[in-house]
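Reopening this ticket.

The earlier resolution said the output was attached, but the attachment link was broken on my side. Pasting everything inline this time so it's all in one place.
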Amino acid sequence: MGAKLRHLPGARYFRFGTLALLLAAAPLAGCTSSSIGGAGASAFGGSRLEVAELSNPGDYTAEGALREAKQHFRNNDFGYSAALYKRAVELSPRNAEAYVGLSASYDRLGRFDLSDRVYAALYDITGETAQYHNNVGYSYMLRGNLHQALASFRRAQAIDPDNLVIANNIQIIANAAATARA
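Inline output:
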């Protein structure tokens, strides 16, 4: 088990055990709207790990796309949730909830290039919020960048010191760091 992963240029290398710990702990932590999911075909065809394309994008209202996106996210169909959240953003460009869901969907798909852009747009809408920094921290945690994740979680905690989700995320990072040292 001495194999190591590299997630980002300049990022630290982590053992598989540390990454496994993070993935096992992910359902306990995370984005404000998240659940861990696996691969597999969605009911709409294609892979749950790829952004889906809507065959009828004109049929959606912002509220309808958001409602369906949440359901697909809960069902771990992140490809379809990303497509629907994207449609909700297109129809309601100032809807922070749609941006949160879109960035979380992209994170779960491993499309951090896209989630980074959505987080930037979300910041323009909401500014410095605990939810924003917590979700960015969770994104970094999924990438294996524990240093950046902890920095984001600490910023979130400074804004909302009594938030149990944020405290749990910080504890997960501490446990991962302790496991990596062991």
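Reporter confirms the inline version is readable. The helical segments are 16-25, 62-74, 78-91, 96-108, 112-126, 130-143, 146-159, 164-181. The domain at 14-25+41-181 is CATH 1.25.40.10 (Serine Threonine Protein Phosphatase 5, Tetratricopeptide repeat).
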